[in-house]
Amino acid sequence: MTDSKRRRGLTVASALLGGVLALTGCSGGGDDAKASGSGDTSQAKADEAAAEKSSEAQITITPKDGSNNASINNSAAVKVAKGTLTNVSMTTEDGKTVAGALSADKKSWQPDAQLERSTTYRLAAEAKDSAGRVAHENASFTTVSPANSFIGNFTPENGSTVGVGMPVSINFDKAITNKAAVQKGITVTSSSGQEVVGHWFNANRIDFRPQAYWKENSTVTLKLALDGVEGASGVYGVQQKTVTFHIGRNQVSYVDAQTKQMKVTQDGRTIKTIPISAGSPENKTYEGIMVMSEKFKQTRMNGATVGFTDDDGKGEYDIKDVPHAIRLTSSGTFLHGNYWGAKSIFGSVNTSHGCVGLSDTKGANDSSTPAAWVYNHSLVGDVVVIRHTGDKTVSPDNGLNGWNMDWAQWKAGSAV
Fold it and tell me: Could you tell me which residues come within 8 angstroms of residue 77 by beta carbon, excluding any fewer than 6 positions away?
């Protein structure tokens, strides 16, 4: 082969090799671009397909996942938008199932009963949208602990019938510092239309009453909307309930320690006069307006519990079966039957340690005695007005005896 042919062959080979290299280089770049373009299209299609498959149902669980100090009344709830709920499961941390109810339209769910305090709950919900696509949501929360919540113990009881003097009395298990907030969460109304005002005796007790005694045969409603109300720093209410009670006939009794008689009146008319024996000159009975707060067919009365002790520290008296006892003060003043005293003392001499005694028989089974008559004709909430004992007026917070404050004083104790 001549040199000239040899050079032409190398030139062609070089050109072909360069073309191949160039083509390979371009092909490499072209393949990358093509792969990249193909990948973007595939991803977009995948995203579009995923979006098409994702449920439109939007589940909301309250309280939020991880919440603490949650309400035991209103916290647990599941709702769905753009779909319907198909399954809701609520359990305690130890696996106990909490029963609940799905709304008729399957848009919401809530527990059947009040939750427990200081308990962790888990909620799992499932819903479907109109296309049948499923959505899921889960949450866990812990309800308020006893240490971070307060409860009000109230009287009278729901559904009870009481006398015209019965206040609504609420005693809280923790001191309340945000009195206005708590009082705003309590409403007391009467079917009679009487204005009802609350009065704080201390940080733990608020009573509600009208200016004058309740109207007979009226209905009183107490509403507690304290759930979530902060009564003190970091301490929240948990109660949400409505209580109603009925006011019976208007019965007021008048005890006169001088005449040693008790007149029982209804609607201002005397229906019975009963001889009594009030506190002795050494142990006078409180004066003032008192409300019957408890009734016991028989009860024990020990002087040591109310400060009447002998030199050995024992009670000056200890009677294990006092009949027909009706409490008038929390400090120990009662209207009660007396079977141990001579019948002659009633109506003639004051001999008690501060109570008001009526003639009775041992065992509380004789319905013919004056004490039995009073017991059987009295309601918790009836009023007893005690006069002419020579002692001081009973403190308004000693029992349910706020009637010993005039209306201006009473309203001054309101926080709202």
Answer: 61, 62, 108, 109, 110
Radius of gyration of the chain (CA): 40
Q: Which two tokens stand for residue 182?
A: 């708590």
First to last CA, the chain: 120
Kindly give the pairing relationship between strand 161-162 and strand 251-256. unpaired
Which pair of tokens denotes residue 234? 């970091």
This prediction has a pTM of 0.78
> With b meaning 16 or more CB within 10 Å and e meaning fewer, what string describes 71-102?
bbbebbebbbeebebbebebeeeeeeebebeb
pLDDT digits (tens, 9 = 90+) for 357-405: 999 999 999 999 999 999 999 999 999 999 999 999 999 999 999 999 9
Length of the chain: 416
118, 143 in Cβ contact below 8 A?
yes
List, in sequence order, every residue forming a beta bridge with 288; answer none if it has no partner: 386
Q: What is the pLDDT of residue 23?
A: 33
Beta strands (DSSP E) in 184-218 are: 186-190, 196-200, 205-210
Cis peptide before 275 (omega within 30 of 0): no
